[in-house]
Amino acid sequence: MPRAEPETIGAQRTGRGKRLPGPGAARHFSPLEPRSRSEAPALSPPNLCAPDVCSYECVCARIRVNFVLRRPAGSEMFACAGMGALNETFELWNGVKIPKLALGTWQMPPGETTYKAVLFALQHGYRHIDTAYAYGNEASVGKAVRDSGLARADVFVTTKLPAEVKSYEGALEYFERTMANLSLGYVDLYLIHAPWPWHRKGEDFTLQNIEVWKAFEHIYHNGQCRAIGVSNFDVRDLRALMANCSVKPMANQIKFHIGHTQPELTQFCQENGILVQAYSPLATGKIFRDQRIAPVAKKYGRTVAQICIRYALQKGLQPIPKSVHPERILEDADVDFEISAEDVRYLDSLGAQTTLA
Fold this sequence. Notes:
8-stranded parallel β-sheet; globular
């Protein structure tokens, strides 16, 4: 039976490169038993892909691929593996190392679409996958990780408790559901998806979040999760939680992109040793409407997407770009360059002008 072509989720960027066939058979491995936090495996650098394991017929002679993925002005082709950003890590305050670049899976349909995108990313150097129970694709992510041929210790998986779950018992129950979905033995980073249920956004759930956090601390101390954190928490939410916990959050995943940088919140997190993860670094595609970024991209011979991702990295944040397109997954990781301090200040200045936020 012919394999289905990868689905596309929104026309965020103009097409580049040709469409690629879906994955073939991949090697399988059994997930490891849960590790304690003290074991904290070191993440190994990505292996170079080879034709017998690459699901998209990538011929990787260190830096070449067999489909056209060119930067502006005819610069060299994108690297397929060994890209520096994929090898680098941040260190959480508890000593756990987290890869600086992650593939996001928000709005990826469960099944083949998510499976193919995640498997391709893992085969081409990505070592961090971000998912959530609410995305409905945890099982597809887990299968791709298992089928990647990589050791469980070499893949970092972030997932999230549904925002609507605001009780101790509920948090434990949904964590077990996540564990069953992923079938990976343990979770690397587990987050509270939001400080309020989505349908009651902005309301005060401080007491409920404290109760949920106690369940997170239980999960953490039991060694089922190597790190715990939150998402979409503002300074007030974080202060309330930190005043009533024994384990401080290790990460806060927030919306961050050029024009919407939340400086007060990011500064608070960084001053308190909380890693800021940047979801939607491309503003879910809306960033491409802002023509003021294009001259910066042209100056460096890069794409707008690469400027946005590199900008987040230079701000000390961990970006989570998302794509189901193989060529864009590679493009988003090819960010081994430096934006000058002057150009960073220019991009900072767009916050007061842009309408994207």
